[in-house]
Automatic annotation (TrEMBL):
Entry EC no(s): 3.5.2.6
The protein, known as: Beta-lactamase
N-terminal signal peptide: 1-20
PANTHER family, A to Z: BETA-LACTAMASE-RELATED DOMAIN-CONTAINING PROTEIN (PTHR46825:SF9), D-ALANYL-D-ALANINE-CARBOXYPEPTIDASE/ENDOPEPTIDASE AMPH (PTHR46825)
Reaction catalyzed: a beta-lactam + H2O = a substituted beta-amino acid
An example Gene Ontology biological process: response to antibiotic
Keyword tRNA processing listed: no
Cellular component GO terms held in the UniProt record: outer membrane-bounded periplasmic space
């Protein structure tokens, strides 16, 4: 699910944020001089982040050249002493897609499926609509958002999300997905029309991620959530990620605010499979995910492989946005996540052996800008520290 899909719909997201983050970071910190240690920098950035309008609380995880940091700031509910903790479960929104992409990369390496496979070989029934002329939708088209599938199924969800900041949006989204299951998804998939040759044009599609989760279930003969939890527990030590929650687990879910509404809003409705935006995770889980990404290895390397190169600076891997040529970050991998009551970012920057995860329990049209500014400030501090280290005389 990409509730804030208009923010991160295509490459212009990176271009406009490159400018806005520079402008905002000046206002966020006032200076980019590194503190004596990175922990102090993260403390400052986290404290400044929640001073931004409408932001209530934030959690940050950072892995930098083997060092690990977690910071929580603010109160999740206005007027109540309710700071987030390591046990807090957050809705990570479309960051869920990178988990799905990693599972697909593992399936490719295990020869369970191929990127060139026609997606219809994993579907029951006939889907003559899932092609353009004679060109079928292939698995690589799902991963690179070039399938031509709509953002959301059912289509009426896209109409609701078009006015994302309207106070009615969370309730209307809940109504759309009430009782909406896998059978409904496949019925709607039959009605989709592919308007151009797949593999060419970027069109963000959460529906494509849902279909990818179904394909994983078919090849592994296992439900998606158990596959997700088992894999990331074993390879990354992510012991607390989940899609569905028990009553006890739901009590740990972060309260969240939509737009400028002063009343906490409801969680994101459950989607079929949940692969596109229903994953919940703790900050320590996400720190372990950063470590897993930075460690590399065959699965991570495959998931970071560009599948479509749109221009010299922007590519798509296994749901990862890949940006090159950035003055500060160099080559990096990133994804935004957003639901009606939280937004987050993940950045993987090999140049600095650096991973950053930032999440806040508010979701509005300026939330992403504030988090981008915080991330840019941290990277500026790290870059300054490394530059100073280069010029220090040997001891």
């Amino acid at each position: 699910m990409q509730a804030t899909s208009m923010i991160v719909r295509n490459r212009r997201w990176f271009n406009c944020f490159a400018l806005s983050a520079v402008l905002l970071s000046a206002g966020c910190t006032g200076k980019n001089v590194p503190a004596k240690n990175l922990g102090a920098d993260i403390d400052e950035v986290a404290a400044t982040l929640i001073e931004q309008p409408l932001l209530h609380s934030a959690s940050i995880a950072v892995v930098y050249r083997g060092e690990e940091f977690i910071r929580h700031r603010g109160d999740m509910e206005t007027g109540k002493p309710s700071p987030p903790t390591d046990a807090t479960l957050y809705e990570i929104g479309s960051l869920s897609k990178t988990l799905t992409g990693t599972l697909i990369a593992n399936a490719v390496l295990e020869h369970k499926l191929g990127l060139e496979d026609d997606v219809r070989q994993y579907l029951q029934g006939d889907y003559p609509n899932l092609q353009y002329k004679s060109e079928p939708l292939r698995i690589r088209h799902l991963l690179s958002h070039t399938s031509g599938l709509p953002n959301m199924l059912p289509e009426r969800a896209n109409t609701v999300l078009a006015d994302f900041t309207d106070h009615r949006t969370p309730g209307e989204l809940n109504a759309v997905y009430k009782g909406y299951g896998k059978t409904d998804f496949f019925n709607d998939l039959h009605t989709v029309e592919i308007g151009s040759a797949p593999g060419k044009e970027y069109a963000y599609s959460s529906a494509g991620t849902q279909l990818a989760a179904h394909i994983l279930e078919v090849v592994y003969k296992r439900d998606y959530e158990s596959l997700l939890r088992g894999f990331f527990r074993d390879v990354a030590g992510m012991s607390d990620i989940r899609i569905k929650m028990s009553e006890d687990e739901a009590a740990r879910l972060a309260a969240g605010y939509h737009s400028d509404n002063v009343v906490p809003t409801t969680p994101m409705p459950e989607l079929p499979w949940g692969a596109s935006g229903n994953v919940k995770a703790t900050t320590p889980d996400m720190l372990n995910y950063l470590k897993f990404q930075l460690a590399g290895g065959p699965v991570v390397t495959e998931s970071h492989r560009p599948l479509v190169k749109f221009d010299s600076e922007f590519s798509i891997g296994y749901f990862w946005n890949i940006v090159s040529g950035d003055r500060l970050k160099d080559l990096y991998y990133a994804h935004h996540g957003g639901v009606p009551r939280s937004q987050c970012y993940i950045y993987i920057m090999p140049k600095y052996d650096l991973g950053i995860f930032v999440i806040t329990n508010q979701s509005g049209d300026q939330t992403a800008h504030a988090m981008e500014a915080a991330i840019d400030t941290l990277v500026e501090r790290i870059a300054s520290r490394e530059k100073l280290a280069e010029h220090e005389p040997p001891r």
